[in-house]
Amino acid sequence: MEKQVKKIVLAYSGGLDTSVILPWLHERYPGCEVIAYAGDVGQGKGELDGIEKKALASGASKCIVGDLRKEFAEQYCFPMLKAGALYEDRYMLGTSIARPLIAKGQVECAHKEKADAVAHGSTGKGNDQVRFELTYMALAPELTIIAPWKDTKFQLTSREAAIDYAKLHNIPIAQSKKKIYSRDRNLWHISHEGADLEDPNNEPQDNLWVMSVPVSKAPAKPSYVTIDFKAGVPLALDGVRLAGHELIARLNEIGGKHGVGQVDLVENRLVGIKSRGAYETPGGTILFEAHRAIESITLDRETYHYKQQVALKYAEMVYNGQWFCPLREALDAFVDRTQAGVTGAVRIKCFKGRATAAGVTSPKSLYSGKLASFTMGSEYTPTDAIGFIKLFGLQMRGRGK
């Protein structure tokens, strides 16, 4: 027997999916109160302007907007940055890292409003359904989870059908059947999926990009920015200390102007489907390059190499929605220990779609100019290498004989 629910908190973005789900919930659960919860993770004013008015007009009893930008930057993006987490070598996990925080805010809202259910608009084919629901399970296992796209009574099986439903119910939406990209934007990135991108043989068009200019239209003169790190955390740009969300936003402007951070990727979803998406992560790309540069002179070889293995697992856990998991917390403890000496400044050059390190300094640097020099000196006795190489290659010599 289906459990009766009296009050639902819906993760509400104002986009196509959640716009049609809100009135549908009233049809599916007559008499049930629906509260819209929108997490501000840096989508920008364009997406959040008028969201309360729209939610109320669509049937929400109230709309609550949580300002999560600073928490998103400093407690989610920066730990991921310190770990060096990239999914399948290229995806910077912009959507993945935001979902657990939005779901956490939604759960807190449900507790405050004494709701007995939470709902999301993620489809049954994607990764986001896992990210939302794992967070609900970890933080509030007593709440009923409502996922309309997996409900057999939910007949909106395509974005086209959702558009028709929105028109029928006079729900204002930005999408049309001619402009039907599915986009997710936050402080860290924007993703583009669907429409012509579903064919991996179609090149992304110049008019696709939102946060950055096409590389072909980037300036002919580079821009430089210096980022100060302390214990692996970026704290300042060009000597000016900024809060995490302000720092990322400024780097988005700098990187976006030069077409930095554009990725066209076919990725392997957790549910087993290959999907194609185009991503823009200008500020994140600059930070990853800068963090990699400062680590290169401050981490010893063994720690650096082992941390690369940890980064793979960390990225996988973020991608799979396992943020509120003991292992992720344990990995953070390891990463934080490695970052104790990752302090210094990195100068980054942004030019024609690339962010490259143009200089790096650190008071904790392990780099020795005398050791690295081709000039022989008292710091290193070359003849010592004779015995070392003989022992290191002993098994290979034996096999060779």
Structure description:
This protein has 401 residues and is of the alpha/beta class. It has 3 domains: 7-74 and 97-181, Rossmann fold; 185-361, Argininosuccinate synthetase, chain A, domain 2, CATH 3.90.1260.10; 371-400, no CATH class. It is 41% helix and 19% strand. The protein has 14 helices and 14 strands. The chain has helices at 16-28, 45-48, 51-57, 69-83, 94-112, 128-139, 159-168, 244-257, 282-298, 301-319, 326-338, 369-372, 384-392, 394-400; strands at residues 7-11, 33-40, 62-67, 117-119, 144-146, 182-185, 190-193, 223-230, 233-237, 240-241, 262-268, 274-280, 344-351, 354-361. It has a 5-stranded parallel beta sheet, with helices on both faces. Strand 4, helix 6 and strand 5 (144-146) form a beta-alpha-beta unit. Helix 1 (16-28) crosses helix 7 (159-168). The longest helix has 19 residues, at 94-112. The chain is elongated. The mean pLDDT is 93.
Tell me the name of the CATH homologous superfamily of the largest domain: Argininosuccinate synthetase, chain A, domain 2
The largest sheet has its strands arranged as 3-2-1-4-5
- The count of strands amounts to 14
Largest sheet: 5 strands, parallel
Q: Mean pLDDT, nearest integer?
A: 93
CATH topology name of the largest domain? Argininosuccinate synthetase, chain A, domain 2
Structural class: alpha/beta
**Low-confidence segments:** none
First CA to last CA: what distance? 75 Å
Tertiary shape: elongated
What's the number of helices? 14
Count of distinct structural domains: 3
Spatial extent as radius of gyration = 24 Å
